[in-house]
Amino acid sequence: MMRKEQSHPNSWVQILGRVRDRAITESIVVEFYPKDPKILRQECYRLYGEVAGTQNVTRTLTGATNQVPLLRGYAWEPIPRDRFGDCAAA
Predict the structure, then answer these.
(1) Any residues with CB less than 8 A from the CB of 35 and at least 6 apart, and which?
(2) Which of 9, 27, 28, 54 suits 64 as a labelling partner, its CA being 20 to 30 A distant?
(3) Domain map of the chain by residue range?
(4) Which carries the bigger pLDDT value, residue 15 or residue 72?
(5) Is the backbone of residue 23 left (phi > 0), alpha (psi -120 to 50) or beta?
(6) Other beta carbons less than 10 A from residue 28's beta carbon
(7) pLDDT score, position 87
(8) Which pLDDT score is estimated for 16?
(9) For the purposes of burial, counting CB atoms within 10 Å of the CB of 22, is it exposed (0-12), middle (13-18) or buried (19 or more)?
(10) Going along the chain, which residue ranges are E strands?
């Protein structure tokens, strides 16, 4: 799952990161400065960033707010989908 918003002056991306060798995911926010219109919703990427603290995220359907890890993104690259249509494991 990936949610993306373009706002001045950044690209804000919320992803569900997978924990290697475990069946759990963690919501993570990655911000890219300046904004990058080449990052598209529903695509698969490997994102690189540095931990910058946390950020509150409000879930659209329920209105619930969660505090999630925040990364300052510095690079990204597209990755392929696996045979089931999911983003391929790193």
Answers:
(1) 6, 7, 8, 9, 10, 11
(2) 9
(3) 2-78
(4) 72
(5) alpha
(6) 19
(7) 84
(8) 81
(9) exposed
(10) 2-7, 10-18, 25-32, 45-58, 65-78
Residue 7: phi and psi, rounded to 5, are: -135, 155
Distance CA 12, CA 81 (A): 22
Longest CA–CA span in the chain (Å) reads 37
Residue bearing tokens 């359907």: 61
Q: Cβ distance 17 to 3 under 8 Å?
A: no
Q: Tell me the residue type at 20.
A: R
| Window from 16-25, 50-59, 62-71 with minimum mean pLDDT | 16-25
3-class DSSP state for residue 63? Answer: coil
CB hemisphere CA count around 49 (13 angstroms): 20
